[in-house]
Amino acid sequence: MTALELTLLYLLAAVMAVAACRWLKLPAILGYLTAGVLMEPHTLGLAFGQDAESIKYLAEFGVVFLMFVIGLEFNLPKLRAMRRHVFGLGLAQVALTMALVTAGSVLLAWLAPTAWPLGWQTSLALSGAMAMSSTAIVVKMIADRLELDSEHGQRVMGVLLFQDLAVVPLLVLIPALGSPPEALFGALALAGLKAALLITVLLWGGQRVMRWWLTVVARRRSEELFVLNMLLMTLGLAWLTEHAGLSLALGAFICGVLISETEFRVQVEAEIRPFHDVLLGLFFMTIGMLLDWRQVVLQWPLVLALTTLPVLFKLGLVTALARLLGASSGVALRTGLYLAQAGEFGFVLLTLSRREGLLPPELFNPVLAAMVLSMLATPFIVMASNRIVMRLVAGEWLQQSLQMTRIASQSINTRGHVVICGYGRSGQTMARLLEHEDIPTMALDLDPDRVRQAQAAGQSVAFGDAAKSQALVAAGIKRASAVVITYLELPSVLKALAVIRELAPHLPVLVRTQTDRDLDKLRAAGATEVVPESQEGSLMLASHALALVGVPMRRVIRVVQEQREQRYGLLRGFFHGADDASDDEMAEERLQTFVLPDTAAGRTLAELLAGAGELRAIRLRRRNGQPVPPDDGAPLQGGETLVLSGKAEALARAQKVIGA
Q1: 621 and 594 in contact (C-beta within 8 Å)?
Q2: 126 three-state secondary structure
Q3: Which DSSP symbol is given to 597?
Q4: pTM here?
Q5: Chain segment 447-506, per-residue pLDDT in tens
Q6: Positive or negative, the Cα torsion across 629, 631, 637, 639?
Q7: What's the structural domain count of the chain?
Q8: Apex CA 567: angle with CA 565 and CA 573, to 5°?
Q9: Averaging pLDDT over each range in 56-65, 178-187, 631-640, which range is the top one?
Q10: Among 392, 425, 449, which residue terminates a domain?
């Protein structure tokens, strides 16, 4: 089989496996792993006799680019912000996992040397691989489930961040552990010294050199040259660290960190983003291809033990540590469930251990298979985590009930309020404007620190998930006049819209987006109006530009208003003023406010406007100041304020009909 035919076969397997995972709503990484397993040359023969050495060579490149991307995304400000979880729970998890697993493995080798013939060097290397969890799978699932800002989400992210840090010394340690016993401690000391010197030189002087060189390349204004330069630097630093007796992955990681600290980080991320998922897919496919299922079938009891025991051990350890560090029982158990599996860095350390001769060939496949199986089980464990916690933690149901009670207690005395989903900058600005007009609000947010500070300032905000019906009901959605969704994650917004439409089908819902790319999808999901930030930014830029070049301000406002009328259904029309009496404007749609007389009491909106012509009711405000959605069949009261939209003639007839 030619190289081209083999490449096409790899691509076909990857496309089919990833498409199947998308259809099943599972992470694409599982599809790449499955494709790699099907392509591996030992069993089904789909790789058509490709030797294992070429596959291992391909896997090395997958590891290099994976570590480069991780280094590029390494975020020092984020590390400082989460230092309590990173250096608290994260440090404890990695250190205790390695210590206990190493001690247990050495003890097992002493008790049963024939069944488990491993030295302490191999045990230490395996413990490092076992301490890792899957950043790629877990982070994606946490984001999809709107749990990044939850208590367990913060703890999970802190542990994953420390695991990323822990990989660096392990990449130095494992090659040294492969030295002969008589030279082991000398090799460890030498490796540590070389790593310290190399990393110091690269991080101290490397930033200046990297910034200077990237500036030179950027001045050429060539995208091809920029991408080629990224490849050269990544592979060059990987080669440098390998020749220093360390590992390829360490050099790639350092290259990513160096670039992340320069002003070219955004450009590099933009250039490498199209390749990011492909590089990850390459890595996971090669991992699957290293698996020899013949050995797995022959050693299935060992594979089963290596799958279940580490998962249960990590689940128990992380849960206990989180509980000791102040988490509630439910949060601690959720954190353990999310981190119990193996991770991509575990594969990196495992393949490095094999290359250095630390891991016996007969043990490599069972360990690799166990890690793959635990990662395949991760999405199902995460999706079932809430049911598991509710069943095992007696107080979790009560705690969730108390949370809903707290939300309900804040909203119980409000009617006609606006429910704000997401209390970031946009949500807070919205709340201030509404409260300035004496319109009550009730906000839901998943950031506990933000909620705590806002509540201390006396604002109506509660910790709750806007995509859950219990939180929305507790926030009084059935008594609300409108809902505003201010966060930008499309899957989360669609989920919240589905729940809102189920609870309150006729309630107006405003949605904020960055662009109008998903406009039709959001409207089909139930959004009354979608406000793209890019559209509003463009209108403001255009209005300032028109004013600066001398266009009269009145015309600038008119042009911008016309653009908004074309874009937003709810903003068609404007309030008429004394200086708006031109003939052209008589034919335009406008807004007018009416205070209903006492004679309108008991009549419906449809009856009141029967002879007025084509008019739309935009807003109705009760006598107590509370806004409510206009309802053609609801009885009106005297003293209420009604906002109508229509042409001048229809509004004039409405003035006579209403008698306001």
Answers
A1: no
A2: helix
A3: P
A4: 0.64
A5: 777 887 787 777 888 888 888 888 888 888 888 888 999 888 887 888 889 888 888 888
A6: positive
A7: 3
A8: 15
A9: 631-640
A10: 392
Give me the domain span that covers residue 614. Answer: 587-658
Axis-axis angle for helices 28-39, 3-23 (nearest 10): 140
Structural tokens at position 351: 């393949």
Are 484 and 527 a contacting pair, CB within 8 Å? Answer: no
d(CA 618, CA 645): 7
User: Which two three-digit tokens encode residue 283?
Assistant: 């890595």
Instruction: Indicate the pLDDT class of residue 579, thresholds 50, 70 and 90.
Output: very low
How many Cα atoms occupy the beta-carbon half-sphere of 124 within 13 Å?
13
Q: Which two tokens stand for residue 50?
A: 């490709």
Q: How far apart are CA 68 and CA 238, in angstroms?
A: 10
Opening angle at CA 23, ends 17 and 24, nearest 5: 90
Residue 209 maps to a domain = yes
Residues 6+ apart with CB under 8 A from 44: 38
**What is the per-residue pLDDT across 63-78, written as a single tens digit (0 to 9) for each?**
677 777 777 766 666 6
At 421, phi and psi to the nearest 5?
A: -95, 105
Alpha-carbon gap, residue 634 to 647, rounded angstroms: 25
Token readout for 580 is: 């708006």
156 and 289 assigned to the same domain: yes
Q: Dihedral of the CA atoms 287, 290, 296, 297 (nearest 10)?
A: 110
CATH assignment at residue 289:
1.20.1530.20
Taking residue 283's Cβ as centre, other Cβ atoms within 10 Å add up to 28
Please say whether the beta carbons of 590 and 654 come within 8 A: no
- Residues 379 and 243 placed together within one structural domain of the fold: yes
- Token pair belonging to 508: 């107006």
Amino acid (1-letter code) at residue 642: L
Q: Residue 491 maps to which CATH number? A: 3.40.50.720
Q: Residue 532's beta-bridge partner residues?
A: 513
C-alpha distances in angstroms, 103 versus 98, 117, 120, 236, 370?
8, 14, 8, 38, 20
Are 379 and 232 in the same domain? yes
- Classify each residue of 342-369 as buried b or exposed e, where b means 16 or more C-beta atoms within 10 Å of its C-beta: bbbbbbbbbbbbbbbebbeeebbbbbbb
Q: Of 36-45, 329-338, 402-411, 448-457, where does the model show the most confidence?
A: 329-338
Name the token pair of 6.
């083999």
Please name the residue ranges forming H helices in 82-181. Answer: 83-84, 91-111, 120-130, 135-144, 151-177
For 384-511, where are the alpha helices, taking DSSP H only?
385-392, 396-411, 425-436, 448-456, 469-474, 490-503
Q: How far apart are CA 654 and CA 223, in angstroms?
A: 63
Pairing of strands 461-463, 529-532: unpaired
Q: How far apart are CA 351 and CA 287, in angstroms?
A: 9
Residue that is last in its domain, among 343, 359, 392: 392
First to last CA, the chain: 86
- CATH number of 605's domain: 3.30.70.1450
Residue 391 has pLDDT above 90, yes or no: no
pLDDT-derived band at 314 (thresholds 50, 70, 90) equals very high
Tokens found for residue 221: 């204004």
Q: Are residues 375 and 286 both part of a single domain?
A: yes
Give the strand order in the sheet containing 509-513: 461-463, 441-445, 418-421, 482-485, 509-513, 529-532
- Please state, in angstroms and rounded to a whole number, the distance separating the CA atoms of residues 486 and 513: 8
Token pair of 90, please?
A: 């994260």
| 617 sits in which H/E element | strand 616-621
Distance, CA of 184 to CA of 121 (rounded, Å): 10
Token couple for 210: 């990297």
- DSSP classification of residue 299: T
